[in-house]
Amino acid sequence: MSKVVHFEIPAQDLNRAKKFYDSIFGWELQTMPMGEGEYTTVKTTAVDEQTQMPTEPGAINGGMFERTEELSSPVITIDVDAIDDALKQIEDSGGSTVTPRTPIPGMGAFAYFKDSEGNVLGLWETTS
Length: 128
Fold this sequence. Notes:
- The protein has helices at 14-25, 83-92; strands spanning 4-11, 28-34, 37-43, 61-66, 75-79, 96-104, 108-114, 120-126.
- By secondary structure, the chain is of the alpha+beta class.
- Strands 2-3-4-1-5-8-7-6 form an eight-stranded mixed β-sheet.
- The chain is globular and about 45 Å long.
């Protein structure tokens, strides 16, 4: 069974969104360059320093990014063994690829897909 392992929140104004979530929930936010833009990691729970995985069972962390036309609503991300295999199954079942497998050096890879109902979700593949 594949687990939900991450969430993402798109924002029109990242600074405004970071201030909002930090002031209300006390989340730890760290912005870094990614590709042509920026990505803000969102820590909602403690993590193991080596694996960066949450130490509390069932807890997840997330991220924030600048809203785009394709990624305009919150995204949940599902852990899979192989993104390319999952994307093939998704396409065979009536979904589509939004963003193909994209590596993050030393961590893994991500992709975005559209399900049969038009929702955009994410996939995560951990580097072995």
